[in-house]
Design a protein that fits this description.
Layout lengths: L1 E5 L24 H6 L2 H6 L1 E4 L4 E2 L8 H4 L3 E5 L2 E5 L18 H17 L4 E3 L6 H9 L1 H10 L1 H26 L5 E2 L10 E5 L8 H18 L2 E7 L7 H5 L6 E5 L11 H9 L3 E6 L1 H11 L4 E5 L5 H27 L5
Parallel strand pairs: 1-12, 3-6, 6-7, 8-9, 9-10, 10-11, 11-12
Antiparallel strand pairs: 1-2, 4-5
Helix pairs in contact: 5-6, 5-7, 7-8, 11-12
Length: about 350
C-alpha cells in the first residue's frame, strides 16, 4: 500500500488541515469559516496510489487533557498544555468538565466537517492522546514521573479514570465521524468501522515494568473496544516495550516513527522485518527513494508506505511506475528462491 498525496508547486502554500492547529483560532470564528480555509488545498491535491480524501480537526496531541481542565496553549506549529491546580494526587480526579469549551469546539467543528463533506471524504477523529500523555498534561511531566514512583496506586486510579474519559470522548466523536465515508484519524489509516492510532509517547521515559503496569492494560482495553487498533511507536526509546505490544492479539498494526535526529525508516529494516514476522501490519513515513529501498529488500506484504515528500502529479505517476517494477522484481526473486526448495 502506498499513500501518496501530490500537488503542483504553485499550490504548496495553500493551508493544509493537518498542519493547522485550530486552537489558534478564536472561538467566535464560525466552524464553516475555518473549513473554507482548507478548500483550496483539498481541491489542489491529487490522491494517488492508495491515498484517500480526508480531513481531521487538528487541536494538537492529547486534547483530552483540555477537556479535563488543562490550559491549552496553541502556537503556530504545535499545542502544549499547562497543568491545572497543584493539589495532592489523592484529591486529584480526571473527568470531562461540564460544558467544557474545548469539548464543545471539537464537536462543533467535527460535525461541521461531517455536514459539509460527509459524503465526499473520510473524516478523522482529533488527536485524543494516550493515557499517560494526557496525565502528563494534567499533572506536569516531571510531577507524573515522581508520582509513578511515590504514589503508584494513585496513578493506577488516575489511569483508570483517564481510560474511561478517553473511551467516552472516542465514542461520541466516532458517532459523529461514522456518518462520513469511513473512519480515519490523525494518521492515514482507513477503515469502515471503529479504528484509531493508539499512542503513549510518555512511554519513552519509563521502564518496561512501568509500561506493563500503567500502559499495557489501557492499550489492551482500547484494542478490545476497537475493530482495527494500530499503535504509534514513536522513537527508539519505546523499543524496550515492543515485545509486549506485539503480543497484543487484537492490535492490528504498528506505525513506526524513528524520531527526530534518527535515520529514516529505510534504515530500520531488521525492525520492519520484526513487525511483519509478528503478523502485524506496519506503516512508515518515508521519502520516495526510501520507499523503493524498503520494497527492494522486504517487498510490500503487510506494509503501508506514507510518502512524506512533496511530489508533483507527474513525479507521482513516475514514482508509482517505479513501485510496480520494484514489486514485480521482488516477487520474481522470491519465486526463484522458493523454487530452490521444491523437491524434484
Amino acid at each position: 500500500m502506498v499513500v501518496l498525496e501530490c500537488i503542483e508547486p504553485q499550490d504548496e502554500a495553500t493551508l493544509h488541515y493537518a498542519s493547522t492547529f485550530l486552537g489558534n483560532y478564536a472561538p467566535e470564528i464560525l466552524a464553516d469559516e475555518l473549513l473554507d480555509l482548507f478548500i483550496p488545498r483539498l481541491q489542489a491535491t491529487y490522491y494517488m496510489g492508495d491515498a484517500f480524501p480526508r480531513v481531521w480537526p487538528n487541536f494538537g496531541p492529547g486534547i483530552v487533557a483540555a477537556f479535563a481542565g488543562a490550559c491549552l496553549n496553541a502556537v503556530q506549529d504545535t499545542t502544549w498544555f499547562t497543568p491545572g491546580g497543584g493539589e495532592a494526587i489523592s484529591k486529584f480526579h480526571i473527568g470531562l468538565l461540564v460544558d467544557n469549551p474545548w469539548w464543545r469546539r471539537v464537536q462543533t467543528i467535527t460535525l461541521a466537517v461531517v455536514k459539509r463533506w460527509g459524503n465526499q471524504l473520510s473524516i478523522g477523529i482529533t488527536d485524543l492522546g494516550g493515557n499517560l500523555d494526557i496525565l502528563a498534561h494534567l499533572r506536569g511531566t516531571q510531577q507524573l514521573l515522581f508520582d509513578l514512583v511515590d504514589y503508584p496506586q494513585e496513578v493506577d486510579r488516575l489511569v483508570h479514570e483517564t481510560h474511561q474519559l478517553w473511551l467516552h470522548c472516542y465514542g461520541v466523536l466516532y458517532a459523529h465521524t461514522s456518518l462520513g465515508c469511513g473512519i480515519t484519524c490523525w494518521g492515514p489509516c482507513w477503515l469502515p468501522r471503529r479504528s484509531y492510532l493508539l499512542q503513549s509517547d510518555f512511554s519513552y521515559m519509563i521502564s518496561p515494568q512501568m509500561f506493563e503496569r500503567y500502559v499495557l492494560p489501557d492499550l489492551s482495553a482500547c484494542c478490545e473496544a476497537l475493530d482495527c487498533p494500530v499503535y504509534h511507536l514513536d522513537g527508539k526509546g519505546q523499543l524496550p516495550h515492543l515485545d509486549m505490544l506485539l503480543a497484543l492479539e487484537r492490535l492490528r498494526g504498528i506505525q513506526w516513527v524513528p524520531g527526530d535526529g534518527q535515520p529514516q525508516a529505510e534504515h530500520w529494516l531488521p525492525l520492519l522485518k520484526r513487525f511483519r514476522q509478528s503478523g502485524k501490519l506496519y506503516q512508515v513515513y518515508v521519502s520516495a527513494q526510501g520507499a523503493l529501498s524498503i520494497l527492494r529488500e522486504l517487498g510490500g506484504k503487510s506494509l503501508a508506505l506514507v510518502i512524506n515528500e512533496a511530489l508533483t502529479p507527474e513525479q507521482g505517476k513516475k514514482f508509482l511506475n517505479e513501485i510496480r517494477l520494484v514489486e514485480k522484481d521482488h516477487l520474481q526473486r522470491q519465486f526463484h528462491v522458493s523454487r530452490k526448495y521444491i523437491p524434484r
